[in-house]
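FORM 7B: Structural annotation worksheet

SECTION A. Query
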Amino acid sequence: MKPPLAVGVVGCGYWGPNLARSFNLDPRVHLVALCDRDEGRLGRVSKNYPQARAFHDFESMLDGVHLDAVVVATPVGTHHEIAKASLLAGKHVLVEKPMAANSLQCEELVRIASGTGCVLMVNHTYLYSPAVRRIAEIVHGGELGELKYINGQRLNLGLFQSDINVAWDLAPHDLSIVLLMMGELPVALNCQGNSHVNPGIEDVTNLSLTFPGQRFATIQSSWIEPRKVRQMTFVGTRKMITYDDLQPLEKIRIYDTRVECPPHYEDFAEFQYSYHYGDCYLPRIEQVEPLKVMCGHFIDCILSGDEPLSGGARGTEMVRLLEAASASLRAGGAPVAAGSAFEPAAATGTRLPAHS
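SECTION B. Predicted structure
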């Protein structure tokens, strides 16, 4: 048997402790280091992992303990610096979304990872959700007919960020799902938003994406909603799906519902919509924590050398789309071209990780 992979987690704030917990539960991993500049946060998390050495700065961690992989869960503005140093030191890297503060930084990380032979992966958690994977099977299996429209809502009261707006914070979750389902990039997007709490940092945005073939997606993101909402709707020419991630069991509902209009009519008096109302059913969803699947996939890719489902190229494309959204915001919501040579996973046949 191969010895466990030595993993260190940088950042013990909101999400870092969850990553530390998940990696610590993987028998293929030895959690050897935790790092955070805040002594109080570091102390609280370190108590749960006595085998892991605690470091107050990343450079000391990188030099002070043997590491096979580094997990980056720090503010976005620090992602590039930490990931770059880790890759140059020959460490595999898992970085929180978004991958970096701009696409040039992302492209540099991809080049370094390629040159060092290290795995570079971004935590687009929802791509590893059993519910999302089940929806992808239904969509790409043709049960919905042609997918025409996706609507997503990710609303909450906080957590307010000081370095990025709500689109950069929340929209990547829904964007990753939209790209997976559509199987291609949008040709254009536009984004509108406003700042109500911190001047210059939008806390509510509405992102609209136009895809080839008159297909469309909208993503609403907010930090100033009184209730927590995590919902998406997928509309096809034959059926429709609703997805509510906050439901503990019944996350997906499939509706045998559609609207048809007559192919030929002489005048509007003859024009009639045909509404088809069929059954609604709930497919069985395996109860597996997406974070556990994601962390397991990272380790799988290190051991096998395979490209991750949410690898550096896809992380880069996500940041390009967010940059386009920011450009649209600066232009008052005007449309911005969003073309690229990137092919989402659904278009390239990338296999989703197995349940673990």
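SECTION C. Observations
Residues 340-356 have pLDDT under 50 and may be disordered. The longest strand covers residues 224-236.

SECTION D. Sign-off
Analyst initials: ____
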